[in-house]
Design a protein that fits this description.
alpha+beta; Arc Repressor Mutant, subunit A
Length: about 450
């Protein structure tokens, strides 16, 4: 019985489909392996194949010559329903991805999928226990490293983590201590962290910030492109954020004046640092901060690492840095903690700041964190024709959760008939809803008014 086609099984009618057989072998090897049955139709009908002198050797040569790394699968013949069927047994390859005809392929369900350049690069390094930032840049030399940046880093690492490397250490020795030299050449991470001009070697290593008008990306009010080291990019991006978000002033009880940003700066900084540290530097896209009227988003190229989901980000999880050396350097200057706690701290910062929890999204080779601010009640009521009494009473509903007719009368000074009419109008225009019956009836803000505390779910799309 020939198994059905799926993640690990493929059927081919004849050896005339040898190029498709080669591609399937590569796709299986990139994934977890599989079997190719030659001489079988898609519907399972056994046709069989004619085996001549050198048939199997020729097939083995075609597979080996057109795959990279070269595949040498097991090829055997079996008698099925009185006909000869070739079975090609492919093992999952340790070095991934496997290319067929210079194309990186992987198996997904019943199909062979061509991998994108970022996907292929990530598989290449992860299957070898490496990260892309560990690779040397052949064209870079120690002369391309800024000695002052190295010195400032060493001073900061000693102050923050008591890292016992003297600030006067030579650039070469400091890079060795940080594992930033390979084959006597600066690595990608060395240039990203300390390069005099990182974008000379890594054009894609830019950071874009924009302040848009409204809640979409049609018109922007300000934009800045940062071409600097990844350490400087974090600071420059935070300066842009502070310039374009508001500081609210409130008078608390006991007449104490309190100032706070409309978003928790610690959470924003964590998101920016993570984006710079964990982005896919093989991608041509840039890290971005997008600021809208009611939200702030941080984007970076690269989906979540394999085995990690968006739901995992809301609980304690393993840290899987895409750029191991950059992450280790960021740890030394307390930009990150390396324990998978960053997203948890963002959530807690937002709770403490009394704003909605951040939204996490991983899709289409991109990871996005969206922060949303509370929309004031007057903003939510804009466009509604309400009288002064109604506008006076509604903040009390929001603060207390509900309001009775008698409380409405006390707050507004309205007579009973007027209070009944005002409350009825608020219910009709879907600002309030009633709870209870008779004398126990009370009024609460309608769901649509409560939900508009937060801007629409995906601004900027």
């Amino acid at each position: 019985m020939i198994p059905d086609e799926g993640q690990t099984v493929e059927r081919k009618q004849s050896l005339g489909e040898w190029s498709a057989i080669v591609e399937t072998c590569a796709a299986f090897a990139t994934a977890q392996g599989g079997q190719v049955y030659v001489g079988v139709k898609d519907d399972g009908t056994v046709l069989g194949v004619q085996i001549g002198k050198g048939t199997l050797e020729d097939l083995a040569n075609k597979i080996a010559q057109n795959t990279s790394p070269r595949l040498v699968p097991s090829i055997t013949t079996h008698q099925v329903e009185g006909r000869t069927v070739i079975v090609i047994e492919v093992q999952g390859n340790r070095a991934k991805p496997v290319y067929a005809f210079d194309r990186p392929l992987s198996r997904s369900g019943r199909t062979n999928q061509r991998l994108s350049v970022p996907e292929a690069a990530e598989l290449y390094f992860s299957s070898r226990g490496q990260t892309w930032d560990e690779t040397p840049l052949p064209e870079a030399t120690l002369q391309d490293i800024d000695a002052q940046r190295v010195r400032r880093f060493l001073e900061r690492a000693k102050a923050e983590r008591q890292w016992n490397v003297d600030a006067g250490t030579s650039v070469e020795q400091a890079l060795r201590q940080l594992n930033l030299l390979r084959d006597e050449k600066p690595t990608v991470a060395a240039v990203l962290l300390f390069g005099e001009n990182p974008q000379r070697f890594l054009l894609q290593a830019k950071f874009r910030c924009a302040r848009f008008k409204g809640d979409d990306t049609v018109d922007f009010l300000d934009m800045k492109v940062m071409e600097s080291t990844v350490i400087d990019q974090v600071e420059e991006a935070m300066a842009f954020v502070r310039r374009h978000i508001s500081m609210a002033v409130t008078i608390e009880e006991k007449l104490e004046r309190t100032e706070r940003w409309e978003y928790p700066l610690d959470a924003i900084r964590e998101a920016i640092t993570n984006a710079v540290c964990h982005r896919d530097y093989a991608s041509s896209s840039n890290v971005q901060v997008r600021i809208f009227d009611h939200s702030l988003e941080v984007w970076n190229p690269g989906e979540l690492p394999p085995g990690l989901t968006v739901d995992d980000l809301r609980r304690t999880h393993e840290s899987k840095p895409r750029n191991k050396l950059v992450a280790e350097a960021f740890f030394l200057i307390k930009y990150i903690e390396q324990f998978g706690t960053g997203t948890g701290r963002m959530i807690e910062d937002c709770r403490q700041h009394d704003v909605p929890e951040p939204q996490f999204e991983s899709r289409a080779n991109t990871f996005r964190i969206a922060f949303q601010k509370l929309v004031s009640l007057p903003e939510r009521l804009m466009g509604l024709e309400l009288n002064e009494r109604q506008r006076t009473a509604l903040p009390h509903v929001e603060k207390r959760g509900r309001l009775t007719r008698r409380e409405y009368e006390t707050i507004t000074g309205a007579p009973t008939a007027t209070a009944k009419r005002d409350l009825s109008e608020l219910v009709k225009c879907n600002v309030l809803v009633t709870r209870g019956r008779g004398r126990s009836v009370s009024y609460e803000l309608a769901a649509q008014i409560v939900s508009r505390k937060v801007s629409r779910e995906n601004p900027g799309k």
